[in-house]
Request: fold
Amino acid sequence: MPFAGIFAALFFAAPVPTFSYDVAPVLYHRCASCHHAGGVAPFALLSYDDAHKRAGLIATVTTKRYMPPWLPSAPRFQHELRLTDSEIATLAAWAARGAPEGDGRATPPPPVFSDAWGLGKPDLETEMPKPFEVPADGPDLYQCFVIPAPAKENHWVRALDIRPGNAKVVHHVILFQDTSRTARKRDQGAGYPCFGTPGFLPARGLGGWTPGAAPAQKPEGIPDLLHGQADLVLQIHYHPIGKPETDRTRLALYFTSDAPKRRLMDVALGSSHIDIPPGDRAYKVTDHFTVPVAVDILGVIPHAHYICKSMNAWAILPDGTRRTLLTIPNWNFDWQQQYRYLTPVRLPEDTRIEIEFVYDNSAANPRNPNHPPARVTVGPGTTDEMAGLHLEATPVDPTDADELSQALWGKMMRSLGGGIYRPGR
Reply:
């Protein structure tokens, strides 16, 4: 029998997936955090009727891995939204066989979503000073809003939760601390535009929010410092949806009395040597850094703009072993976020960390903001580009913190003039 005939026979002999037994568990586990009433997605996927009428769309966007929006292909991270090959095949087979419901009585109860804070009553709760009017149409907006000094004294932050006031238009949120009062001068009551960077050198960031994100809990023994008298600055990416909307995003902070037992440090790699000719489909920038002491890498924060195509980061161990720290084969600026490893990645002394970013400045790149393509150089603007990758590292031996800090300072000094970009993430 020809291969196609064998495949068809196996396909039609296989049990037909149903919503009740096969599809609902996938949608509830992987999709419902965004696809529920009031969620960031444009429609809910909590009932058979919700899913049945969109079965073909679900199969298409999941097969292409456009949804759920998860960028890394390797390694493994916490809170992954990525579907397994088996789950994708189930959704495709269900749509191809007419999207049957099955026994409705066997459908598991859908998840319940609440406006209550997931970690209970916060130690500090605050919000944007005033609602912001999002226009019906036009380009996406990146707006910063200042919350003047909500804490009078220093606090150690063990967790952060952010709730968009209008998830239909809020794409993602980043929370900065400003001890310079710069942002306060720029915000005259309705926020200020801030694509790429917030317009000031922030104190250590506290985290952010992306669709489907759980409350951000800090690594054990490494709380973040909330500076007393610091202004909090929310950078919010808004996406107009065809009619005017209003947002007033709020946040909750949870404190601990325990000071850090370890020191979390930022291993920053990147490049300012970006000058991409129009039409170049594979422009590449690289950087490297050798850690002078053994470190545990807890997470990674990548950043670029619209024409970046792919990102890679590797650790080359002293014995020559090559470990993947991050692979993003299809970068999408709209879905950037921070990633935390399932378990810390231990790198021995003298490990060389390398990064490679590739950019596509051709007309074939659907995300290219320039039509026709134009020369692109480094900068914070919408049509500029950046290259930055930050690793959250803590020395295995706490007494090595000063040596690592000095090495990182030396790298930064060598980079001045070219200037490594530090995203506020």
